[in-house]
TrEMBL record, chain A:
Residues 27-153 form the NADH:ubiquinone oxidoreductase 30kDa subunit domain. Residues 301-571 form the NADH-quinone oxidoreductase subunit D domain. PROSITE patterns: COMPLEX1_49K. This is NADH-quinone oxidoreductase subunit C/D. It comes from Desulforhopalus singaporensis. NDH-1 is composed of 13 different subunits. Subunits NuoB, CD, E, F, and G constitute the peripheral sector of the complex. GO terms for molecular function: NAD binding; NADH dehydrogenase (quinone) (non-electrogenic) activity; NADH dehydrogenase (ubiquinone) activity; quinone binding.
Automatic annotation (TrEMBL), chain B:
It is found in: Cell inner membrane; Cell membrane. Its EC number is 7.1.1.-. NDH-1 is composed of 14 different subunits. Subunits NuoB, C, D, E, F, and G constitute the peripheral sector of the complex. NDH-1 is composed of about 13 different subunits. Subunits NuoBCD, E, F, and G constitute the peripheral sector of the complex. [4Fe-4S] cluster binds at C39, C40, C105, C134. GO terms for molecular function: 4 iron, 4 sulfur cluster binding; iron ion binding; NADH dehydrogenase (quinone) (non-electrogenic) activity; NADH dehydrogenase (ubiquinone) activity; quinone binding. It is an enzyme of class 7 (translocase). The keyword Cell membrane applies. This is NADH-quinone oxidoreductase subunit B. InterPro entries: NADH_UbQ_OxRdtase-like_20kDa (IPR006137), NADH_UQ_OxRdtase_20Kd_su (IPR006138). It catalyses: a quinone + NADH + 5 H(+)(in) = a quinol + NAD(+) + 4 H(+)(out).
Amino acid sequence: MNATALEKIRAAFPDATCSQVLNYVVVDVQPEKLQDTLTRLKNDQDFNCGLLLDVTAIDYLDYPTPQGARFRVVYTIKNWQDNLLVQVRALVSDPEAGVPSAVPLWDSARWGERETYDQYGINFQGHPDLRRILNHCQFEGHPLRKDYPIDKRQVLYETDSLEPQIRARLADKGIDEATMKDINTEVMYLNLGPSHPATHGAIRILTALDGETILANVNEIGYLHRGFEKTAEQRTYNQIVPLTDRLNYCSSMINNIAYVKAVESWLGIQITERAQFMRVVLTEFYRILDHLVCLAAALVDMGGLTNYWYLYNEKEAAYDFISRLTGARLTSSFTRIGGMYRDFYDGWKEDLERQLVDIEKGFGDALKLVQTNRIVHDRTQGVCVLPAETALSYGLTGPTLRASGVAYDMRKDAPYYNYEAFDFDVPIGTKGDVYDRFMIRFEEMVQSVRILRQVMKMIPEGPVNIKDSQVVLPEKAQVYNNIEGLANHFKLIFEGVKTPPGEWYDSFEAANGELGFHFVSDGSGRPYKLKVRPPCFYVMGAFHKMVEGNMIADAIINLSCINIIGGELDR
Amino acid sequence: MALGLEANLGDTVITTKLDEVINWGRQYSLWPFVFGTACCAIEFMSAAASQHDISRFGAEVVRFSPRQADLLLVCGTVTYKQAPVLKRIYEQMPDPKWVVSVGACACSGGIYDNYSTVQGIDSIIPVDIYISGCPPRPEAILDALIKLQDQIKGESVLVDRHKDFKGILD
Ligand code: SF4
């Protein structure tokens, strides 16, 4: 963002309080101006914020400095062409009255606002379907409110029938059941999940079918809602790193890195050169692993078990490298604020190069089986098409958005960690069908290998942690041999890394798309609030748009090619 | 060399105890249903893939219908929203059936001590084997399988094992 963006927004919204935080603009408006402000930021050619990335709220009940009302809602929006990020915020004194909904502007507000309602109990006037999304329909209270005790558990029994929702969806599409009866057919309702082999986790996909064709679809998520955000409020910043492993557990390291990068950006820490390169190496390596697992599982769903062995074997082999480095196979927890847990071991380059050769062979072999395979083509081409505008409106990012032809990749458009110095391409699709979503992942692996080979040549020597006793633990020798070192260690472990009070958002191009973290700090060593902007939450929000009009079997392969990971989806 | 009754019957017949012959069959043909909810399920994928190859222990016929399975592997976190689903799946499995709780979350809630997470699936369904780890390594899953096979060896076909179980959803 350039400094003029702030000026431009200031000039356009004289009633609002505008300020710059990190590299984006925060616009504070009166609740009654919220809708108008959002509309202009979206439609005005000067701003053109086509992506609504996330919606959340903050409960200031225990916050040390009064804010003027108990709640505040925050919309994070982006103009991806010009890399302009804006947060629009409004105070909410009466959550029951709430604020007007942004659904008429962006479809991603459908799920974003539902989540805010579910977690904070804030009403969004005019939202077409405002009900719980992560928590069970019988759940009482709003768990992210500060007065909801973290250990208050509720035993729940009933399943949500979703009948009104699917009927509403049918009505939306103009399907009249009476007419169908007339022509001697009827709508059949079919549940896929919550526990179904194709859901790779637990998601409930309710379909209304005419024969095998999906007329309407509604989805229920939240089965793996395990309270990440509430738990994080109780942990010090470094203790949250292991929790982030378990967001997208197929690429745990990317979450680790994205998370610490977000904290460091607020602390104003510039990590060492070597650490930056290490993070690029690990991000790209895990991007490959993520795509490997996604494709392996997706091809199994299509009936190609051989691909599973080819692709998954490489993932399994990669564990040798990862466990030598991190000590764990899956849950890496390898980053620390201010750097990394430790440096690479001796000989990592040879190990990594060997892995890359194997991986290339693995996906090369798998690609040979599918690339010119007529069955694969027939089953994927022109199936479950998602046009670019719909994808943007639903807040898609990452490979699924790029498959729809939008060349937005943060590594190119908002580079960090020297990405501008690497030579790589961002593959994009032409149709936005299942085929594109598959092939994009294959191609991204090729590109990641390319980046890795460059980084391995360029990586400088040097320390991996910064020298700052407020942030990084002292050397073990210091801890054991002198009292300052010991006290320093104790303080950092017990109190955590202290962050200045304030609110900020930072994001990262993860394997599935834009992974963002929204923090509120009260100045202590634990976040007052931590909200994740999970890429696949919004992809799942557009699922019905992809599958309606297609066959039931297409819904299965569509689900596997968008790579829904429960840990990140439901948190 | 056969003695007693068997000696009279010749080579074609062996006598054994009913428990023993049935348990022998059951032990080495467990058909798992993987209730994979989270990260631990990825380690099950590893246990099933070529390197660890669960089929060496006779349990590779992964069923995706509980009605065809006799081993329920609960891999991952179970939330209160999910608990009724788990219970229903368990009930749909025909007897005899066994349950392995894979990983810290399924055993005790793991790192999620909060409003939404069930603090151990044994408050919903009876569990035979617990595997520690977050996530457990594939070897640990295989180890649990072997332990379960040992346990099955000692069971009796006439005893209904979990008649009196009462969980929070019962
Ligand atoms: S035990 Fe650990 S790895 Fe397994 S599901 Fe729970 S958090 Fe994930």
